[in-house]
Amino acid sequence: MIALIDEWQDADGTIQRRDEKSDLGGTMRLGAQSSDVKPGTLAHEIYGPVVTERHRHRYEANEHYLDRLQQAGLVISAITQREKLTEVVELPREVHPWYVGVQFHPEFKSTPWDGHPLFIAFIKAALNHKKA
User: What's the CATH code of the domain at 89?
Assistant: First the structure.
C-alpha cells in the first residue's frame, strides 16, 4: 500500500528512476506542498479548503490500491495540487470517532506555545470522547 518513491520528474522535466538496488539519493519529497481538502471531512474541519505542510520522506501511497481502499471505507481527504498524491486519509466518524493519517510532518510546525491544528483537534476530540 505504501511504496518507496521510484520515479520522479526533475525541475527540467527529466524523468529519474530508482529501484531497490539503486542509491536513494534524490528520491526524497521535501519542503512545503499544498493540497486540496475534500469538503465534509474531518481534515476540512481542521484545515479548511487547502492545507500546506512540510515533507521529508521517500514513501507514497500506491495509487494502484486507492480505489479499493476507498471502496472499503477509507476516505482520501486531501490530495496534492500538483502531483495528485495522497496527503490525508481518514475513517468516517461512524467507523471511528477520530482517525486521521497524514503524509506530512505536522511536528515541523508545532511548538510548545502554538500547537499544530492537527494535534489540537486530536486532543479536543479525546477530551470530548472522555466526557461522553
Answer: 3.40.50.880
* pLDDT tens-digit profile, the chain (132 residues): 776 666 665 667 776 666 666 665 556 677 788 999 999 999 999 999 999 998 877 777 888 889 999 999 999 999 988 888 899 999 999 999 999 999 898 988 888 899 999 999 999 999 999 998
Rounded Cα distance between 108 and 98, Å, is 22
Q: How many Å from the N-terminal Cα to the C-terminal Cα in the chain?
A: 35
Q: Cα–Cα distance between 39 and 45 in angstroms, integer? A: 8
Contact 98, 122 (CB under 8 A): yes
Domain, as residue range, for 63: 2-131
- For the chain, the domain total comes to 1
Residue 51, class by beta-carbon neighbours within 10 Å (0-12 exposed, 13-18 middle, 19+ buried)? buried
CA distances for 59 relative to 24, 29, 36, 79, 90, angstroms: 11, 8, 20, 15, 18
